[in-house]
Amino acid sequence: MxxxxxxxxxxxxxSLPRRAGPDVPGLVGADLSPWFNPFLPHxxxxxLRCGGEVWCVRDGESLAGLTLHDPAENxxxxxxxxxxxxxxRVGTRETRAVYSDFRFDGPAECYGIYTGPVGPAGPAxxxxxAVRPVREEDLxxxxxxMREVEGNVDDxxxxxxxxxxxxxxxxxxxxRLAGVGWVAVLGRRARLHSLAVxxxxxxxxxxxxxxxARLLWAQRAxxxxxxxxxxDRNVASRAIAESGGMRRVGEIFLYPPSGSRPGP
Length: 264
Known about the structure:
alpha+beta, Nuclear Transport Factor 2, Chain: A, Aminopeptidase
């Protein structure tokens, strides 16, 4: 039987625990993804914190599938080892995009899964720019930067984000915010995500500086392994990840809404 957990849009985190995620029986220790199992409680927490929806699919007493929907970005993520469950979600997506570990027929954008040990590989990185942590007063301009670079972002994600396992790092060039990147540490695992650099500041080493700053922070926070998803079309980010000792170990797929095509 499928069970839905809801939190109204705009509602705060309430009694949701900071690091463990809400009480989804069987979630901790569940094997639903080759890459994201350690991060699933955090993903559930973040989805509900931002007014999204979480669906659980059970096979007897076991958790067989988890579906997270972000209404602001209109994207659904499906975590399951059962191909039929993932195929059902992808096949009925209609007006929303869907992430899945499984490859099905039809248009899809491929994201490589990159992992590696925390800490720089080879010679120590020489920073070309000053990097500092994101502070509360930075959140509004950081959201503007990410919206400018990435398009649609969920403003609710920034409300209270610094009280979660997420940490952001930014670079300013002159007096202007030029780039930002985020990292979440869950136990011994870290996930790098949402690297955004304004076009006029690209090819100046900002991406590499933000990568190594986050790796160093993750190491000090106790992580030993890092993971990141990078679109195949993003050649620059792939090269930066590899410079930090990360290697491609798998892939996930983003299926656009039915009748549309993935982005360029």
